[in-house]
Design a protein that fits this description.
- By secondary structure, the chain is α/β, with parallel strands linked by helices.
- Helix content is 45%, strand content 16%.
- It has a 7-stranded parallel beta sheet with strand order 1-4-6-7-8-9-10. The protein has a 3-stranded mixed beta sheet with strand order 2-3-5.
- Helix 3 packs across helix 4, helix 4 runs parallel beside helix 6 (170-184) and helix 9 crosses helix 11.
């Protein structure tokens, strides 16, 4: 596969996480290697031994994989061209949301961050290989980093006002992302719906693609999008609503909104076919089943139109 495969939604099957926020961190408990988590009033904490929470997360993941493999087989997709995308919290978000035994964020301890990143990278890599074996299909990985801008800007709260969480160094973030991408192999995307994405940091990383909500983009973001695309990588633009509200957009309207962004950047329309994808704005974990199907259908049809006749949009 090449980087461009990430934007070809008609051949991409997304496996959404069960819920957002803390639930995303809880699901990560099934992926971590030799690190367990447990629940606390504020969310999740690193546990000293394998906890019931970790066992439950692993059990749910196994159930999901069994159901997916059965459905994949019944649909006749085994060994086909469909690409499966799986997701997990990125290393910064994971360390920012998990507590240490003493109650502080794990991101305040460089050793804990290093251990969590290595554990996450190993676990997600094994998860990807397992899926590829079971489905006999290509699998790409997306790391969700909603906390990344806040961590870099020093906006994370501490246990008390006397225990601030200092900004994470940009070079550290780049190294953490590269550890995960290198271990996972294949194509790796980073997704964030938070405004203020650090495009310079992402540009220096080996991440293959960045997925972002178009409603959060500023003029500075557009420059970052342009440089990222110029580097030969993919930008996935979240242009499809994540919930049914107001008139349903047409695929043509969605494609036009995406083309409007690349036009502002001065790109030839061919970039829509080669380096730009269309996705729901910020995931479908909380969408109804009916709207999730509608959103994916809209994205696929928008991509089809962009691929067939980008100049006609």
């Amino acid at each position: 596969m090449v980087v461009g495969e990430l934007h070809r939604l008609p051949h991409l099957v997304e496996l959404p996480a069960r819920g957002l926020g803390a639930d995303m961190i809880g699901r990560a408990g099934a992926l971590l290697v030799d690190i367990a988590i447990d629940t606390v009033p504020r969310g999740y904490r690193i546990a000293s031994g394998r906890s019931s929470v970790t066992r439950r997360a692993a059990s749910l993941l196994d159930e999901d994989l069994d159901a997916l493999e059965e459905a994949w087989e019944k649909a006749g997709l085994r060994g086909g061209e469909r690409v499966v995308k799986v997701q997990a919290p990125g290393p910064v978000t994971l360390a920012a949301q998990l507590e240490l035994p003493g109650g502080h964020r794990a991101i305040t301890d460089s050793g804990a961050v290093r251990d969590l990143t290595a554990s996450l990278a190993e676990g997600v890599a094994a998860h990807r290989r397992q899926l590829e074996r079971r489905l006999e299909s290509a699998v790409v990985v997306q790391f969700d980093e909603p906390t990344l801008p806040a961590a870099l800007a020093g906006r994370l709260s501490g246990v008390t006002s006397l225990n601030p969480v200092h900004p994470v160094d940009e070079s550290v973030v780049t190294a953490l992302l590269d550890v995960c991408a290198g271990a996972v192999g294949g194509e790796v995307a980073l997704h964030s719906c938070a405004p203020g994405l650090p495009w310079k940091v992402l540009q220096r990383s080996v991440i293959s693609a960045v997925s972002v909500d178009v409603d959060t983009l500023t003029v500075a973001d557009l420059d970052g999008v342009g440089e990222f695309v110029d580097s030969g990588r993919t930008v996935l633009l979240g242009a499809v609503p994540t919930a049914a509200s107001g008139p349903k957009p047409t695929p043509q309207q969605i494609a036009a909104s995406v083309a409007g962004i690349t036009d502002r950047l001065g790109f030839a329309r061919a970039v829509l076919r080669d380096r730009v994808g269309v996705t729901p704005a910020c995931g479908l974990a909380e969408a109804t089943e009916a709207w999730a199907r509608t959103a994916i259908d809209l994205a696929q049809k928008a991509v089809d139109g962009m691929a067939e006749d980008p100049d006609g949009i």
